[in-house]
Amino acid sequence: MHIGIVSLFPAMLGEALAHGVLGRAMTQGVFEVDVVDPREFATDVHRTVDDRPYGGGPGMVLKVEPLRSALRRAVHRAPAGSRRVYLGADGRRFDQDTARAASALPGLVLVAGRYEGVDERFVEREIDEVWSIGDYVLTGGELPALVVIDAIVRLLPGALGCSESAEQESFANGLLDWPHYTRPAVVDGDAVPEVLQSGDHEAIRRWRLREALGRTWLRRPELLERRGMSAEERGLLEEFKVERAARTRPDR
Ligand code: SAM
Question: How many angstroms separate the alpha carbon of residue 176 from the centre of ligand 1?
Answer without folding.
Answer: 27
